[in-house]
Specification:
This protein has 23 helices and 18 strands. By secondary structure, it is α/β, with parallel strands linked by helices. The protein has a seven-stranded mixed sheet with strand order 12-11-13-14-10-15-18, sandwiched between helices. Strands 6-5-4-9-8-7 form a six-stranded antiparallel sheet, with helices on one face. Strand 2, helix 6 and strand 3 form a beta-alpha-beta unit. Helix 16 packs across helix 18 and helix 19 packs parallel to helix 23. The termini are far apart.
Length: 563
C-alpha cells in the first residue's frame, strides 16, 4: 500500500522543485513529526522560501505577498486580540478584517488546525495569503515589538562585554564568543543577506568608532546595516573558523575559502583578511557556481562581434587576449570560450589565480607563488603536458608574456588576459613587456576589450530624454536625440534602477593591415584609428547601441568607459 504524501511534498515534486533523494535525506536526518516540511527545507538550505511560496501560490491560488506589500504604518487589524507569541509560533500575521472574513499572511498554508480554530473563535472566514517566515516575523516585530530589525534582534542577544580591550587581547575569549550561537547566526545572516541580494562581495570594515558593512551588487558598493564595532573581533574570528584560518594571527593578511550550501545551491566564498589601524578588515567574494553564465551567446555580444570572436576561438593555434579592468568579466568570457571549444578531442589546461569555477573536462591549475608555482613556471610545465588549448589567468610580467607567445607560435591556442583600457592598448602592453613586434604580429589573432554595464530594471523601466551634455561626452552629435530609458527605482532593484549586468565589447582582429602597423611600431592611437576605419566597433559604439535598445543608460556607459 502506498504511503499518503504530505500535500507540500506532492506539489514540490510535481513542479520538480525538490527530488525524491532530497526528500528522503531531509526526512532521515532532520524531519520530525509536527514540523512543517517547507520550514525544514528552507532552514536547512535545500530550497529558497521564495521558490516554495511562488510554487504554492501557483498551485493553490493563494496570493504571495512580500514585506513591502504589508501595511506600512499602523497595526493592520487594531483591537484583534491574538497574542503576539501565538503569531510568532504559528508564523501568521493578520492583514485585514471585515464583517465576514479575516485575511492572514501565513508561511504554512496547510496549518488547517490553526485556521479552523481562528475561524471558530472569531466567527469569520479565513482568507490566506502566502509570505516568508522572515517577512512575517519582521512585520510582527515592527507592529507588535520594538520595531527592531533582524540585525538588531541578533545583536541584542550577544552580551556586551564590560572590558572590551582585555577581551580583544584574549584569543580564547574571542574564540569562545565566536563559537556561540548568536555570533554564528549573525555571520550567517550577513552571508545569506548578501546571497539573497545577489551580491558578489561582502566588505566588513572597522573604523575608529564603527563597523561598516557593504555589499557589492552589479559592480557597485552599497552600505547596509552593520553590527556594532565591539563585535568585530568575534565576527572576524567566526569567519576565520569557517575558512580554516589561524584565529590567533591578527597581524598578517590571510586568505581562505568557505564552502556552504544555501538555498539548495553550493556556494564558494573566497575570504581575505587584512589588518588595518582599527582591526581586521574582511572581504568575502561570493562564487555561486550555479549562477555563472559561461555561454558566449548570453554575455551581450553584438551579432557581428560574436561571429568574429567565435571564428578566432576555433583557430588551431595563436593567441587571443581579453582586456579590461578588474571586475569587467574577462574570466567569464574566457570560460565561455573554453566551453565552446571543449570537446573530447582537445586537451585544455588552465593556470589561474585563483581557480574561480571548475569546468568539466578542463585541467585547472591554481598558482602558488610562495612555493615557486608562478604563471611563468607553471606555464612551462603545462606546455610539456601536450595541451591543445592553454588559458593563462593573467599576463603580469615579461617572462609569462614570452612563454605565452612562444606557446602560441608552436601550435597551441592560448587565451589570456591583460590590463589595458582598450583593445589596441594590449599590443603596446606586450611591447612594453619586451616582446618583439614581429612575434606579436605572428602570434596574436585578436584582442577583445570589454566592460560590464548595469542593465535597466525591467520592473520600473520608463522612457526619458538624454542629457545633451552626456551626448557630447559620448561623442554623439545629434540635434534630435532619440528617446532612451532609465529605471525609476523599485523594490525589485533595491531602488537603484538597475538589475543585473551585461557586456559591451570592442574586438580588434589582427589582419594584414594591423600586422603592418605592429611591425612598424605604430602607437596605440594609430592602431585604434586604423581598426575603426576597417570596421571595428568601439566600446562606446557598442554601448550606444545598447542605449538605443533600452538595455542600459548613457550615464552607465560613460561611467565604465571613462578613461
Amino acid at each position: 500500500m502506498l504511503k499518503k504524501r504530505d500535500p507540500i511534498e506532492k506539489i514540490l515534486l510535481d513542479h520538480k522543485k525538490i527530488s525524491e533523494k532530497t526528500l528522503e535525506e531531509i526526512k532521515t536526518n532532520d524531519f520530525q513529526k509536527g514540523k512543517y516540511l517547507g520550514k525544514v527545507l528552507v532552514d536547512h538550505g535545500y530550497i529558497h522560501s521564495q521558490v516554495i511560496l511562488e510554487t504554492l501560490s501557483q498551485e493553490l491560488g493563494f496570493p504571495y505577498l512580500q514585506v513591502t506589500d504589508f501595511p506600512k504604518s499602523e497595526l493592520p487589524v487594531p483591537g484583534l486580540e491574538i497574542p503576539e507569541v501565538f503569531l510568532r509560533e504559528k508564523l501568521i500575521l493578520p492583514l485585514k478584517m471585515d464583517s465576514e472574513s479575516l485575511t492572514l499572511a501565513a508561511f504554512d498554508p496547510f496549518d488547517w488546525e490553526t485556521f479552523e480554530n481562528l475561524k471558530i473563535s472569531l466567527g469569520k472566514e479565513i482568507r490566506i495569503n502566502l509570505s516568508s517566515q522572515e517577512d512575517i516575523l519582521e512585520a510582527i516585530e515592527s507592529f507588535y515589538g520594538k520595531g527592531d530589525s533582524a540585525m538588531d534582534r541578533m545583536v541584542s542577544k550577544i552580551q556586551e562585554e564590560e572590558e572590551v580591550e582585555s577581551a580583544l587581547e584574549s584569543t580564547e575569549h574571542i574564540r569562545d564568543m565566536a563559537s556561540e550561537a548568536p555570533v554564528i547566526k549573525l555571520v550567517n545572516h550577513i552571508i545569506n543577506q548578501a546571497i539573497n541580494m545577489s551580491a558578489s562581495d561582502i566588505h566588513l570594515e572597522p573604523f575608529a568608532d564603527d563597523l561598516i558593512l557593504r555589499y557589492r551588487i552589479d559592480g557597485m558598493l552599497y552600505e547596509h546595516e552593520a553590527p556594532p564595532k565591539r563585535l568585530n573581533s568575534a565576527i572576524v574570528t567566526r569567519i576565520k573558523i569557517m575558512a580554516h584560518l589561524d584565529i590567533a594571527e591578527r597581524r598578517l593578511p590571510q586568505d581562505g575559502r568557505i564552502r556552504i550550501k544555501s538555498q539548495g545551491k553550493d556556494i564558494d566564498i573566497r575570504v581575505s583578511t587584512l589588518p588595518t589601524l582599527y582591526g581586521e578588515s574582511v572581504v568575502m567574494r561570493i562564487l555561486d557556481r550555479g549562477n555563472i553564465v559561461v555561454n558566449l551567446d548570453h554575455l551581450g555580444f553584438p551579432k557581428k562581434e560574436l561571429e568574429l570572436f567565435q571564428n578566432l576561438i576555433h583557430k588551431p593555434y595563436g593567441q587571443i587576449l581579453v582586456t579590461g579592468p578588474t571586475g569587467s568579466g574577462k574570466t567569464t568570457t574566457l570560460y565561455g570560450s573554453l566551453e565552446k571549444i571543449n570537446t573530447p578531442e582537445k586537451k585544455i589546461v588552465t593556470i589561474e589565480d585563483p581557480v574561480e569555477y571548475q569546468l568539466r573536462g578542463v585541467n585547472q591549475v591554481h598558482i602558488r607563488p610562495q612555493i615557486g608555482l608562478t604563471f611563468a613556471n607553471g606555464l612551462r610545465s603545462i606546455v610539456r603536458q601536450d595541451p591543445d588549448v592553454i588559458m593563462i589567468g593573467e599576463i603580469r610580467d615579461s617572462e609569462t608574456a614570452d612563454v605565452a607567445i612562444q606557446s602560441a607560435l608552436t601550435g597551441h591556442l592560448v587565451f589570456s588576459t591583460v590590463h589595458t583600457n582598450d583593445a589596441a592598448g594590449a599590443i603596446t602592453r606586450l611591447q612594453e613587456m619586451q616582446i618583439e613586434s614581429f612575434l606579436i604580429s605572428s602570434a596574436v589573432l585578436g584582442v577583445l576589450a570589454q566592460r560590464l554595464v548595469r542593465v535597466i530594471c525591467t520592473q520600473c523601466k520608463e522612457s526619458c530624454s538624454i542629457d545633451p551634455e552626456a551626448l557630447l561626452e559620448m561623442g554623439i552629435d545629434d540635434p534630435t536625440p532619440p528617446a532612451a530609458f532609465r529605471g525609476k527605482g523599485c523594490d525589485h532593484c533595491n531602488e537603484t534602477g538597475y538589475r543585473g549586468r551585461t557586456g559591451i565589447y570592442e574586438l580588434l582582429v589582427i589582419d594584414d593591415e594591423i600586422r603592418k602597423l605592429i611591425l612598424a611600431h605604430a602607437s596605440t592611437q594609430e592602431i585604434r584609428e586604423r581598426a575603426i576605419q576597417l570596421g571595428m566597433t568601439t566600446l562606446r559604439q557598442d554601448g550606444w547601441r545598447k542605449i538605443l535598445e533600452g538595455i542600459t543608460t548613457v550615464e552607465e556607459i560613460i561611467r565604465v568607459t571613462h578613461s
